[in-house]
Amino acid sequence: ALTYHYETQCLPTPGAWFAHQLPVWLHKLSVVGTFVIEIAGPLLFFAPLRRLRLFSFYCQVLLQLLIILTGNYNFFNLLTIVLAFSLLDEQHVGYWLGPPPPCVAAWPPSLSRFLCSLLELCTYSCFLLGTVRFFGLEIQWDKQQLDSKVAFTYHEFTRWLGTVTLPLVGLAFLSLSAEILSALYRCFCIRGCGWKLLATVQWAIFKAVGVTSRVVCQVPFTYIDYESNGKLWPGIHRMFNAVERFQMVNSYGLFRRMTGVGGRPEVVLEGSYDRQSWTEIEFMYKPGNISVAPPVVAPHQPRLDWQMWFAALAPHTSSPWFTSFVHRLLQGKKD
What subcellular compartments does it reside in (predicted)? Predict the structure, then answer.
């Protein structure tokens, strides 16, 4: 897919040209990394160990930064990074803002610390072994490259989705419940009845918001497996339908299918003053003149240039706005 993606995406960046020149085996390895980060990585969002959550945070941010460098997807990647910041805690952010406090490692380590380290090691080992197993990683010493391939079928993947979707819903509720109880305990530890009451009121408000958003977001989350979506408690669907118009939660996937494998279709607009000589109308952001480097426009969303890419993928009937656009051009409407 990546051998086509960089030159056929909506609004490429100058970095996309360099990424397009990478060898095929590295493109394939990039797809493997994307699959691991976007499919297996989010499972660590709810991990009980903070270092596993930090690991998933940096994986997500790395992927989003690489996408920003190789494609103009306006604010989508920045939104993902902002959401990923919820995986951090005050202690880790403190490392960014100032020198870390001196840390003296205790020896021998306590049993809980040893078990946590063992769990981390097992998790990283599962990630590595799973990647090798499901993507057929193999070092080719003669060519000095790392070969990879998808070693599972579509049906195996959908069966796996059906197996893990509902348990993930339960894991999310357990994680949220632990945070709620921990926050309530901290409220009771505050000195003074007035401050305790104020903290408890704040806790109740945030708890209500958190639980409500967590409940209703299970509906769009389980869209990835419709059987799991049908098994949700009907009350959750009723709550989602009641607030759906406010767009509090949603399911958004930018590109669910690969396009441009057969080339990059383009809609070319030309104008003429004398109806004899015609000149192509250059857009501000979308690729046109191949002698000009593509611009960097993110996080701006050039709506017209963005939609022109989609207009080229289907008949004009699927883009009714295009007829109005040409009509306004013929009328000479500057805006």
Answer: Endoplasmic reticulum membrane
